[in-house]
Amino acid sequence: AGPRLQRAEGRTSGGMKFKCTLSSMGVTWLERFVPIFEKMGKELSVLFTPETLHLVQGAADSGGLELHADLLVKEAFDEYRIASNNADKIAVKLETATLYRVLRGLVGSEATHVEVKLIKRVIREGLSLPFLNFASTGLVDITQDVPLGGPLNKRELEDLEHIVQANVVNVPYWLNLDRQATEGAHQAAERFKAVGPRTELATTKAGSLHLATAKGGSVTLGTEYRGLPVLPVAEDQYETAQGGVDDDDDAAGASERLAEAVASGSAALVAVNTKQLWKGLQGVQTNPSNAMIGVASNRGHMELVFRYDRQTVNGPDAVGLFVRVPAEIDEDFDFD
């Protein structure tokens, strides 16, 4: 007859409770984000807090990147009840593919009401395991379980919080790429993969993004974006943004502009793994309004922030996707 449900009201041991109702918008957001995490790695951590839902992958799960998608509770849920002995926060780990399969089922069944509960099921005598239970009504009423690792302990939860809180705190300025520029940068990284394992990336306060990869000690492929808005203080030299200009077409001009920026101290340079850069830029597949790119002041990493300003209900900060790409240790730049 199948495993017996224990504590169906959404309570697990230790005074932990979680029960919510996903909104149709919440299902849509999750169905957009989870495929990106599935491409990065097999496991995904989910951090529930009283105000925000975080989907998190650390470097060990994603192949070297740190990334997280943040959704305000009011953006994704119609009802939301959470309680725990750890400041009402709960963290779990699950298989990304299993969660994505459940989300596709919700979309396919045109679910109009989706209840999500943290439960335990008795698998056999003396063994109970945690699950995230999805009960939906729509064209077909469906109940689906996602097996969980956890709930995670306090130290593991704090490790997830550290990943979430580490973003957007050590970047002096950002370049703001529109959707077209972000797609172009992703396509450039795709081409770079066939040429070199390392990409040199530079941003300038004049609003330029330089990408180049080398093979055999010399630059063989590169692109430049000019006239990008600079945040928080714009110092643009160009009135309008110019799309990616291949170095084959304007090699001298791009190199000269970057050399001037470096000499004046208005450029930030970092070398990153080409494949990791390409993976990070896959965030464009979540249909963002724009993406911000910046280099940490210690040159230890570069960051991508995908924003959905015109798509959220509760303001521009209601939803975001954040990616940290680590720097290569040896930074022998070949731009010039």
Explain how this protein is built.
By secondary structure, this protein is an alpha+beta fold. It contains 8 helices and 21 strands. A 9-stranded antiparallel beta sheet has the order 8-4-5-6-21-20-19-12-16, sandwiched between helices. Strands 1, 2, 3, 7, 9, 10 and 11 form a 7-stranded antiparallel beta sheet that branches. A 5-stranded antiparallel beta sheet has the order 17-15-14-13-18, with helices on both faces. α1 runs antiparallel to α4 and α6 packs antiparallel against α8. The N terminus is likely disordered.
Quick summary of this structure?
This protein has helices at 24-40, 59-62, 73-76, 96-108, 154-165, 179-192, 247-264, 274-281; strands at residues 4-6, 11-12, 16-22, 43-48, 52-57, 66-72, 77-83, 90-95, 113-124, 127-137, 142-147, 174-178, 198-204, 209-215, 218-226, 230-231, 242-246, 267-273, 290-295, 301-307, 319-326. The chain is an alpha+beta fold and 336 residues long.
